[in-house]
């Protein structure tokens, strides 16, 4: 099934260049109102011209002329909204369907992507553009040595602690506690790990938010990539308890928390390699905590398992 | 599931696994299920991928790990039954 076979024509002549970690995207065919809305939401992730035109992926905003092949109830997984995706027939792009949009996400510069919506205002809605960008970044990161993770990322002492967990694992609660204690947040729902020059991994800001939303304490833009001190897997419990996680168990937790690339779209071997690399490189712990535990207490418990990690905000 | 010594199995093509440390991580791409298997489980998956039959599986585990033969054969058979129940392997006429 082709996601964008029923679309034609762009909305206008505006083009925006997204500069996201691991991928640059030129989004053309935009109506001026769409471009203005996107500039407002993604200002720190836009650039005047692509840094490397030959490696820039291209996508055209188009009109969706016919209804989607799925109703909204079919776009859920485990009770949560989940756009449908499938690898296209030659493996060059991802076909994507979500609420109010159909899209083709290019996997390389040889393919032109499309993002089709029925109404002009739909494109800049978070459930459309953000889902498109999430899928794009997830696949590009995987192919460039990184991984997009369902996680909350908190900055302490110039390093990032990445708390992984799927929906309802406690990420937003943890972020609220961190902000209340004066810590900066990189992301409350989705974060990107990319390899760095030191042979380690850095957390890179991405323009994706969850329930917590954008907040003044949240970092933005490509310049703020920070080294990752460790991965913390959130587990339910009635005590404040931290335990080391065996490397294979750590890899399995990362796999479960790797959205868009762990759902059978032919990424299996590469994804396994990536989670093995990350779990072999970064210390990984499990954390159980209680509602009454504040963030400094949690950090104090974590610091014993993270060599050289300090507690300063 | 029948299990004679010359029986072969094929791994489901949607099953992916990899050694991570001394264990293995397995992902079933049909449903996103993930599991961690110990060193023996990983070894058996590798042997199954290479087309080993039951007798060869038993022999290879005995050669690699210090286990009693009777216990080994029971454990290997039970592991194959678990994989079969998960749809991770299916019986094959020949390698």
Give a quick set of tags describing it.
heterodimer, A: 313 residues, alpha+beta, 6 helices, 23% helix, 33% strand, B: 95 residues, 3-stranded antiparallel beta sheet, 3 helices
Shape of chain A: globular
Low-confidence stretches of chain B: none
**Rg from Cα of chain A:** 19 Å
Number of helices of chain B: 3
Largest sheet of chain B: 3 strands, antiparallel
Number of strands of chain A: 19
What is the H-and-E element order of chain B? EEEEHHHE
Physical arrangement of strands within the biggest beta sheet of chain B: 2-3-4
Report what the structure shows.
The complex is a heterodimer of chains A (313) and B (95). With 313 residues, chain A is α+β, with helices and mostly antiparallel strands. In chain A, 23% of the residues lie in helices and 33% in strands. Chain A contains six helices and 19 strands. Chain A has helices at residues 32-42, 126-143, 171-180, 247-256, 268-281, 295-303, and strands at 7-10, 14-20, 23-30, 46-47, 57-64, 76-77, 80-81, 84-87, 93-98, 101-106, 112-117, 147-156, 159-164, 184-187, 190-195, 201-204, 226-234, 241-244, 284-288. In chain A, the strands form three sheets. In chain A, strands 1, 2, 3, 4, 5, 8, 9, 10 and 11 form a nine-stranded mixed sheet that branches. A five-stranded mixed beta barrel of chain A has the order 12-13-17-16-15, surrounded by four helices. Chain A has a two-stranded antiparallel ribbon with strand order 6-7. Chain A is globular and about 60 Å long. In chain A, 43% of the residues are buried. Chain B is α+β, with helices and mostly antiparallel strands and 95 residues long. Chain B contains three helices and five strands. Chain B has helices at residues 39-49, 54-64, 69-85, and strands spanning 8-11, 15-20, 23-28, 33-37, 89-92. In chain B, helix 1 packs across helix 2 (54-64) and helix 2 (54-64) packs across helix 3 (69-85). Classes of the chains: A alpha+beta (313), B alpha+beta (95). Chain A binds chain B through residues 246-249, 251-252, 255-256, 262-264, 266, 268-269, 271-273, 275-276, 279-280, and chain B through 14, 16-18, 20-25, 27, 29-30, 32, 34-36.
């Amino acid at each position: 099934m082709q996601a964008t076979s029923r679309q034609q024509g762009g909305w206008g002549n505006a083009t925006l260049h997204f500069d996201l970690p691991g991928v640059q995207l030129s989004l053309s065919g935009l109506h001026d109102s769409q471009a203005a809305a996107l500039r407002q939401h993604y200002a720190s992730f836009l650039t005047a011209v692509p840094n490397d035109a030959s490696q820039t992926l291209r996508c055209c905003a188009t009109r969706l002329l016919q209804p989607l092949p799925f109703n909204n109830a079919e776009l859920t997984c485990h009770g949560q909204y989940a756009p449908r995706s499938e690898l296209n027939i030659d493996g060059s792009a991802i076909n994507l369907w979500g609420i109010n949009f159909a899209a083709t996400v290019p996997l390389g510069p040889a393919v032109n992507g499309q993002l089709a919506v029925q109404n002009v205002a739909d494109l800049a809605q978070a459930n459309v553009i953000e889902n498109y960008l999430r899928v794009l970044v997830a696949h590009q990161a995987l192919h460039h040595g990184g991984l997009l993770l369902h996680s909350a990322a908190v900055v302490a002492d110039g390093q990032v602690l990445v708390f992984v967990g799927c929906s309802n694992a406690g990420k937003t609660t943890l972020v609220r506690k961190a902000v209340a204690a004066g810590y900066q947040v990189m992301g409350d729902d989705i974060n990107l790990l990319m390899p760095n020059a030191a042979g380690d991994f850095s957390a890179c800001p991405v323009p994706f938010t969850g329930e917590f939303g954008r907040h003044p304490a949240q970092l933005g833009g490509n310049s703020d990539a920070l080294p990752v001190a460790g991965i913390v897997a959130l587990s339910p419990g009635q005590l404040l308890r931290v335990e080391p996680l065996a490397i294979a168990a750590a890899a399995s937790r990362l796999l479960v928390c790797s959205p868009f690339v762990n759902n059978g779209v032919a990424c299996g071997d590469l994804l396994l390699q990536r989670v093995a690399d990350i779990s072999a490189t970064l210390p990984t712990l499990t954390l159980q905590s209680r509602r009454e535990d504040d963030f400094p207490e949690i950090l104090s418990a974590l610091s014993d398992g993270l060599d050289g990690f300090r507690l300063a905000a | 599931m029948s299990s004679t010594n010359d029986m072969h199995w094929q791994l489901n093509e949607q099953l992916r696994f990899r050694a991570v440390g001394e264990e293995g991580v397995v992902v079933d791409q049909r449903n996103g299920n993930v599991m961690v298997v110990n060193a023996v489980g990983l070894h058996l998956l590798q042997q199954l991928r290479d087309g080993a039959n039951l007798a060869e599986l038993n022999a290879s585990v005995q050669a690699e790990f210090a286990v009693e033969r009777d216990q080994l054969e029971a454990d290997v058979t039970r592991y194959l039954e678990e994989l079969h129940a998960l749809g991770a392997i299916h019986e094959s006429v020949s390698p």
